[in-house]
Structures are given as C-alpha cells and as structure tokens.
Amino acid sequence: MYPKRKFDRRYLLILIIIILAVLLIVLSVALNKERNLSFPEQLVKDAGTFTVQIFQAPVNFIKGIINETAEKNNIYEKYKNLKEKEEQIDKVIAENENLTAEINTLKEQLELNTILSDMVYKNATIVHRNIGYWYDDVTIDKGKKDGIEKGMAVINSKGLVGTVIKTSNYTSTVKLLGNEHMSDKISVKINVNGTYVYGLISSYDTKTNTYTVEGISENTDIPENADVVTTGMGNDFPSGLIVGKVTKVTTDHFDLSKVAEVKSSVDFDALDYLTVLKRKDNHE
Amino acid sequence: MNKKNIALLILLAFSFILEGIFSNFISIHSILSPLFVLMSLIIIYPFLLNNKESYYKICFIVGLLYDLIYTDTLIVHAFLFLIIGFKITKINLILANNHINVMVMALIIIILYRLILYCLLLLTGNISFDIFGLFQSIYLSLVVNIIYIVVMNMITDEISYRFKIYKGN
Predict the structure, then answer these.
(1) Which residue from B minimizes the CA distance to A46?
(2) Could you give the CA distance from residue B128 to residue B131 in angstroms, rounded to a whole number?
(3) Choosing a second label site near B35 at 20 to 30 A (CA), which of A82, A112, A161, B153?
(4) Residues β-bridged to residue B131
(5) CB proximity A178 to B under 8 Å
(6) Per-residue pLDDT tens listing for chain B (169 residues)
(7) CB-based contact, B117 to chain A, within 8 Å
C-alpha cells in the first residue's frame, strides 16, 4: 500500500489565484465601454429594444399630451418671446447666408473640400436610459443601418450631449458627457470678445452640472458667461458645438494656466430627442 | 406551459419592460432609481421554492438579457443575478415571506447588488474610489424599489390565491 498523497494547499491557493485572475480579465473585457458588440449581442439588443419601444409608445403618447397641456398654459408668454425674436430673425438669416457664401468662396480659393465645422445630421429618439449609478449612457433608436458609427458626436437643441460608444444595426449607445468618470479629454475653445482661447474638458461635476476646463492660457482674461464650444480637434467632434458658459475662472496649483468652470448648456436629466452628428469627410 | 410558469413569465417581462420605460422619465441621480428586475427575482422565489435549479437558471437568463439589452456588459449581470439568487435562497431560509420581510430582503439585496457591482467596477478600473457614491447609489434605490416589491408581493399573493398557484412561505 502506498501512503495516501496529501493535497498540497499551495496548489489550491495557486488555483484560486488563477481563477480569480481569469475572472477579472473576463469581467474587464465585458465591462469595457470601447468593446464592439458581437453579432448575437447586436441581434438580442435590437430585438429587446424594439420590444421595449412597442410598450413605450402609449406611455410616450400620454407624456406628449401632458407636455402639450402644460405648454398651452404659458402659450401667451411664449408668443411674446417669439414675437421679439422674429424681428431679429431676418437679420440673422441674412448674416448666415452671407457667412455661408464667404465660407464657400474661401473653401474654393483654398481648394478645401471640407472644414471642421461641416457635419451631417441624423435625428434619434432615446429608447432607454441606463440609470444604474455608474453608467451614464442612453440607448437611441438609430444604428449602423442609419449610418451611425462609433465616436460620432451627439447633441440636442441646447448643445453637446455625448459620444456614440456602441452600435448595433438598429440601436446605438451614447455615453453622456454628464458623467463623473470621464475618460477622454475634449478639446474646447472659449470665446473671449471675438478671439478664442483653447482648453481641455477634464472632468464633470454632477451636483453643479459644470465641466472643468484645464490648460487655458494664463495671459488671457476670461469673462464670466463666455461661450464655450468644441474645437473639432483631437476627436471626432465637429467644430462649433455649444458646450456651455463660463461661470468661474481660477488658476491651477502651479499658477501656470487657468482653470475654468463651465456650466453645461444641456440638462442631462431632461433628454428626449437627440441628433447624431458626423463630421464630413473629404470624400463625402 | 402551466399557470405558474405563465404568471412568472408575465411578472418578469413586466418588471423588465417597466424598468426600461421608467428609466426614461427620471433624472440620473433621482431617488427613484429603479431595480425592478432585481426585485422580481425576490418576488418569484416563493413560487419556485421546490425547484431551486429552475430558479437559478431563471436568474442567470434574466441577468444575461439585462446585460444584452440594457447595459451592454455581456455576462456581468448574468453572474451577479446568479449570486443574488443564491443569496435570496439563503435569506429565505431565515425569513418568512410577508410584507415586512420582503422589504428587509429588498434592502439586503439592493445593498449587496450595489456593493458587488461597485467592487467589480473598481477592480476592473472602470471607476475611481468614491465611497460616498456607493452610499448614494444605495439610498437612491431604496424608496421606489421597496414600494415596488411590496405592491408586487400583494399582487402575487392575490394571483396565487385566485388562480390556486402554490406560493411558498
């Protein structure tokens, strides 16, 4: 008889460590926001979202009626505001036509096919909002079949909302900029009396709905309420998308550059309809 | 398909769709953060008291669908809901099924779910350490989910009585 071999506890420990490591790698891949959806995932997501949309239709209809009723209550105030704006609109249209003509002439002269502010629009409706505390993203009802691609900018009527991070055939996931765990820095410019100073959005504060813009030149005085727009550089965002207005300016820890707090023009709690933008390529 | 399975399917589908619809009408950090699918796992357990294997399968499948349709995270919720399923089984050994205990169970499960998910996201480098964020995520989920689970518990009690479907205690 051979003596019974004793199980070495060290092997058990190694086995547990290996299992945990593999599990962690699998979960890291699964939780990666940049991961592309596989075909079966896309299929299930499209079918599931379509089902949710069917049940959501009557709810949206009732919501629309309630909103309409609420709007009717202050219709006179709105009429007065619009009347005031109407007087300025002819002037703005004329200016816009003039500027468009100038841009086209300059593009011809410089032999440019596209500029950073050229974009293609695609309207979409939010189907589902992932409100799990750590995912600030929404699903929209437009996907690859509608020409939506990863990295496209998403706006609403107020300004820049986020980026497309995942696409299936009929849906897309949009990561909101109103997200405290922002991984990419966004290049922006601040309008200071007609000239622009550049900076990078580095973080977002949920409580105050403000972005922190870093790396701004020390030499420029930035007034409060200055407009902040995207530069179109460094990522797929077209130039000139409204981000917000400056509320406070301080200097960084080393007194080398300025840091601005920018109040977002978008209310991330009230998103319904979005527009996906694509910067025009040279061949488009 | 028998009456019990139809009732469970309707309950799960209702919670699943309601969570999707409800999420569109509330703000991100609202106190009405819904976890209806998670709550439905607590509700369906008494119906599957004698068939734990089926219960675990349901937990896994529901988690997988949740991943695919709502969070794009593939298997995270599938395993998470399975772990939660095991925990619900254990808690049910201690607590009887009544409205107060169901509320206590909901509280424990919400804390457990948020804690495990937070640790996973922290370990995989998706979020930075923010203990206040964890507490906030827990207390923001309590109100609406506890109301939901109590209401659903009453409804399932009534269904079980009317249609003579066995619901364990």
Answers:
(1) B69
(2) 10
(3) A161
(4) none
(5) yes
(6) 688 889 999 999 999 999 988 888 777 667 788 899 999 999 999 998 888 899 999 999 999 999 988 888 888 899 999 999 999 999 998 888 888 999 999 999 999 999 999 898 888 877 777 788 888 888 888 999 999 999 999 999 998 888 888 777 6
(7) yes
Beta bridge partners of A160: A155
List of chain A residues whose C-beta atoms are within 8 Å of the C-beta of residue B26:
131
Q: Give how far B61 is from chain A: nearest CA, Å.
A: 13
Separation of alpha carbons B115 and B122, rounded Å = 10
- B14 close to A (CB below 8 A): no
The amino acid at residue B149 is I
ipTM (interface predicted TM): 0.85
Interchain contact A134–B (C-beta under 8 A): yes
In angstroms, the separation between the Cα of residue A152 and the nearest Cα of chain B is: 18
Give the gyration radius of chain B's Cα atoms: 16
A181 contact residues in B (CB cutoff 8 A): 126-128
A237 SS3 class: coil
Domains and CATH numbers, chain A: 37-73+113-177+266-284 (2.40.10.340), 186-264 (2.40.10.350)
Residue A264 near residue A243 (C-beta atoms within 8 A): yes
CB contact under 8 A, A129 and B136: no
Cβ distance of B68 and A268 shorter than 8 Å: no
Chain A contact set for B113 (CB, 8 A): none
> Which chain B positions have a beta carbon within 8 Å of A136's beta carbon?
28
Domain ranges of chain B: 3-162
Are A45 and B69 in contact by the 8 Å Cβ rule? The answer is: yes
Region of residue A259 (phi > 0: left; psi between -120 and 50: alpha; otherwise: beta): beta
